[in-house]
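Example 3.2
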Amino acid sequence: MKLSKITFVIFSVSILLTGCNKKNVKPEEPMQMEQKSGDHKWFCFSNDSFSETDLPQHSQINSLKPWTESVRICDANTSADGKALFLVNHLGALYFDETDNPVLIQDWQLFSDSTAGNLVFENGNPYFTLVKNSFFNRNARNSQKNQSQSHIIRLSLEQKMFFPVVTYQDLEIEANGEVTGTYFDGSDWVSSVKSTENNKVSFHYIKWKSLVDLSTVRPFSKKGDSSSIKVSEISESSYRNLVTPEDFSKAPPRLKLLLKSIPKDFNFTLTCRDFGGTSPRYFSSGDDDDSTVSNAIIKDNWVCAVFADGTTYFSGSLDGFPLINHGKTVAFRLPKLPPRYTYQAFAISGKFLIVAWEESDFYKTGRAGFLTVDMEKLFYTK
């Protein structure tokens, strides 16, 4: 099998990502994909939708907003049936059905004033969370907290609709409570809850689970009714242990094998998702606060990691295609982004790699969108 002439390279030596510290020895760099090439397309978010653009820096200017309030891809994963799904904050969801032109599923009432996140799957169904961030969202700060606030949302890909499943009331969260984080381990959900009273802030932590299939839960149940949600208190450490990065030595073997060429003194933090699975696990190769950020997905027939500068590692085979490089890791770099732009979450659908990009300034986000890469053209000769 011959590989495509598109600019990428297979590595058996160490690969150094941009932004490394001075003590690293500079090994050979991945080849850069050309900006003008038939194997990829750029898309940006604008006017409550998305459109194709020639380059990210040429897309419509968006004012910098806190990341919780900006239109940006906030999570992504590949579903159990191999389709890419992206959660877009304040907009909706993008669903790729093995093409590079996604379906945009929207619900203005749900998304307009809430921050989306935590895309997970249970029994094949996608779920995510919605919260109102009172720190950055003036409307949430000035409004009376409402226990009917929808927290867990189910996305029906068949109906292209969103369905509220679990509310603050179902979780026994008080009127002045605000969920600041939620994690799903495949069985139980855990949440961090912030309470504000008399200008004093406190936190407590809960574990909860549905006693029936979550897709059958009906929200807004009256207090006193028999509930299908069981809630209990947990310690702060129990919650923190789930969301604190582990040492990379504890990462899944396939992921460690994929990234074994990275120098041991190169610091990075990595978000690792199982396809069609639960909340991600987090890993760190060091304790450097300036470590490079990356995302990874492990699927049954492939494993892939994308770093913020576009350096991408892949091992395995695309759905319906032969094994690449006899299963050994291949590495290439996505088109170079301008300063202050980075690559974020990604997913693979069929032969397409889809990667989020965004313009950032500390905690604020400006322009945002996604890049699609035809991996058949990248890896295989027609």
